[in-house]
Fold this sequence. Notes:
Layout: E1 3-8, H1 16-29, E2 34-39, H2 53-57, H3 66-74, E3 78-84, H4 92-100, H5 102-105, E4 114-121, H6 128-141, E5 145-146, E6 158-161, H7 165-168, H8 172-193
Parallel strand pairs: 1-2, 1-3, 3-4, 4-5, 4-6
Helix pairs in contact: 1-8
The structure holds flavin mononucleotide.
Flavin mononucleotide is lined by residues 10, 12, 15-17, 84-88, 120-123, 126-127, 162-163.
Amino acid sequence: MxxxxxxxxxxxxxxxxxxLVNSALKAAEELGVETEIIYLGSAEIEPCIxxxxxxxxxxxxxxxxxxxxxxxxxxxxGLIIGSPVYxxxxxxxxxxxIDRSRPLRMDFKLKNIVGGAISVGxxxxxxxxxTISAIHQFMLIHDMLIVGDGAPLAHYGGTGVGVSIENxxxxxTGLETSRNLGRRxxxxxxxxxxx
Length: 195
Ligand SMILES: Cc1cc2nc3c(=O)[nH]c(=O)nc-3n(C[C@H](O)[C@H](O)[C@H](O)COP(=O)(O)O)c2cc1C
């Protein structure tokens, strides 16, 4: 069965990113795919120490929650990554995952996995697109296939505005673009992986 994994890059449990990533995954499930969600806020992830062991062994020399996370990402057909905007880019929790994902790139395990991005900021023009761009760079460098939120809006992905979770329910654009992104990731992952 086609599997889509969602990653919540916020340190906050029950926050806006979680709300939008969950909304995207629910929309994906409506197309018959299986989903799983990973919360970086409750994961133990150390930063990359540039030991370069992954270059010779394909394995990371740091043993923490990343081993499990890499295994889950590597066995997915689609990936939806969400991050709050922190100073115009991703959170440090997500950046640690990005850098620590290098072992998967040694033999391009993520090649042809379908990826989409969601970002939520406290301000309307707070850096949602630059944050999505940072996530897209990660996906391109892994040779993944990137989709946006698809027609009829067809822009960069899920873009939300909110400070507290109470705001998110009324952020119709954030919800719509995130749900459309979830559907688009599920749609393409199903086309590619269904014989
Ligand atoms: C350290 C920090 C930096 C932030 N930088 C920005 C920013 O550059 N632009 C913006 O619009 N919001 C910024 N915010 C606000 C968050 O992006 C916003 O509250 C978001 O909805 C939080 O998502 P969450 O509920 O998933 O944690 C920042 C918040 C923090 C804690």
